[in-house]
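U., I forgot to send this yesterday:
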Amino acid sequence: MSEIAATTVHEAYAFACMRCGYGWEQSYEIEHHVDIHGHEFVVYTADGERVPSPLSTPTCTNCGGHVVRIMRAGRVAGAQQLLHAPRSAKKDAGKVPAAAAASDRHWRLSDLLHPFHRR
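Result:
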């Protein structure tokens, strides 16, 4: 199948499984193509491999469940930073930066909610 040159954009999403509570973040390269007949199509790649659209039927990488909440990138990393921040920093959650190392991309839903519970 021949095609006209692609436009590529980069997007990242955070995911939370509503079945098991597992969470993760993933970055995608999204290639927009037009075939020789003028029909547009999109190709998603993650970590160099072609994958289905993460927005169509997301699947939990932990339990295989399909009830997955999709959020903007940084939600997982932000929750992890709140968990590991000193107690005084946890009181002012709005000032905690959302970026974190790529190795800290996995969490549990209870971890996300824990910093917001009053004691």
